[in-house]
Protein: Alginate lyase domain-containing protein
Amino acid sequence: MMRSILPFLGLTLSTAAFIHPGALHTAEDFTRINTYLSNQVEPHNTTWNLLTASTYAQSTYQPTPKETVYRGYNGVDSENYPSLYRDTAAAYQLAIRWRITNDTSYADAAINILSSWAASLVAIEGTSDKFLASGLYGYQMANAAELMSDYTGWDSSNKTATGTMLTNVFAAMNTRFMEEHNGQDYYHYYANWDLCNLASLLAIGIFTDNQTMYDYALEYVRTGPSNGALPVFAIANYTESGSEKILTQGQEAGRDQGHSTLDMVLFGIVAQQAYNQGDDLFAEYGNEILNAAEYAAKYNVGYDVPYTLYESYQGPQSVISNNSRGVVRPGFELLSAHYGQVKGLDSYWTDSYRDWVNVNSTNGVEGGGGNYGPNSGGFDGLGFGSLLYRISDDLF
Ligand SMILES: *[C@@H]1O[C@H](CO)[C@@H](O)[C@H](O)[C@H]1NC(C)=O
Ligand SMILES: *[C@@H]1O[C@H](CO)[C@@H](O)[C@H](O)[C@H]1NC(C)=O
Ligand SMILES: *[C@@H]1O[C@H](CO)[C@@H](O)[C@H](O)[C@H]1NC(C)=O
Ligand SMILES: *[C@@H]1O[C@H](CO)[C@@H](O)[C@H](O)[C@H]1NC(C)=O
Ligand SMILES: *[C@@H]1O[C@H](CO)[C@@H](O)[C@H](O)[C@H]1NC(C)=O
Ligand SMILES: *[C@@H]1O[C@H](CO)[C@@H](O)[C@H](O)[C@H]1NC(C)=O
Ligand SMILES: *[C@@H]1O[C@H](CO)[C@@H](O)[C@H](O)[C@H]1NC(C)=O
Structure:
């Protein structure tokens, strides 16, 4: 079975059961978060207040599920994918709110969103952008479902239906994208396309206890042949004078900074999900994800970085792109928390970009879906990292 899916990877199949909840967040995370909140520690308290004020975190939230979602105008069907990213953000924010408060009105609102999409969604269409929808909203919906996985009020057939929908609609497209790249060669699609689809396979594998799916994505990140795989993503390493740290130029540095920061946000999601199952992608290739985050972060907070010409599928990119330099994109809280706080490594530039994003955000903390505008870019990450990942030394 695995050979026919991905014959070029040497897979080691593990037999250990999955930890639940265990995609982006574990039960221990919520114990820590609740301790901070009961002591009104910052920035957690302020981030919690931002979350509870969110349009997407209200128990009255009503989803608008579709039978077919369209992302990218194909000349015939109107795009309707904002329904999917809004409802998915809501399912996630409500699930977080339930886990922190135990108030079942949030749990019921979250599973209502998930179950109603499970009852209606059959396909994602549009242009090639449909594969961004399968990746981004796949990992997000699976994370919402995973947070709800131990809610006893979730009707078991509706929970199963949610897993089946995630597998048959999202994961099927995720796998197809990783295998076929929409009919293009391995270099055609920039890294973020792979990364969101890999994040989705990991999350759906965890939620549905599908070891085959999880292992496929894990090994693809480690040894795969296309731009989102760790060995392909790193274009060049540089030693930073002074710190003597390695900074790694990522695959989208010459394209634009919106995407080069998105790559790091998605790598963080991929690695956090695996880490919570005992697989430390963060550490691999000499902490490549940190080194690449440091490079992207340093440039985006206003410092120059070295650059090596990159031959993209669109032609040579001979200078780093200043397009959207300094973009305000949530997601670096996770990277700072893991590398700087959990591992105790030098994450100076990653922390600087995290802070840059926060000072430019509502209330000076990392927000989530709904806090960064109405368009899809504001919903690419799940956010609220200043609550969910930040470790405070102040308390203990
Ligand atoms: C924490 O948030 C609450 C609102 O939920 C607010 O009343 C309180 O002042 C905040 N605590 C601190 C220390 O800022
Ligand atoms: C929520 O429930 C869990 C498990 O029953 C318990 O450990 C936790 O303390 C509760 N949290 C709150 C905020 O009541
Ligand atoms: C299952 O989900 C459907 C679709 O949202 C809903 O109409 C139904 O009430 C749910 N069933 C139960 C038992 O909760
Ligand atoms: C588990 O994942 C594999 C690979 O994606 C897929 O072929 C298989 O159908 C999945 N199993 C179930 C029970 O959905
Ligand atoms: C960058 O450094 C890492 C860690 O030492 C190494 O695995 C990788 O091959 C290097 N990449 C390039 C492009 O030099
Ligand atoms: C941005 O990059 C272009 C192309 O290299 C360059 O011409 C322009 O001066 C740069 N703008 C700024 C503000 O650095
Ligand atoms: C974000 O904050 C930095 C540092 O305070 C500031 O220099 C920059 O102009 C801000 N960027 C945006 C897009 O608001």
Q: What stands out?
A: The radius of gyration is 20 Å.
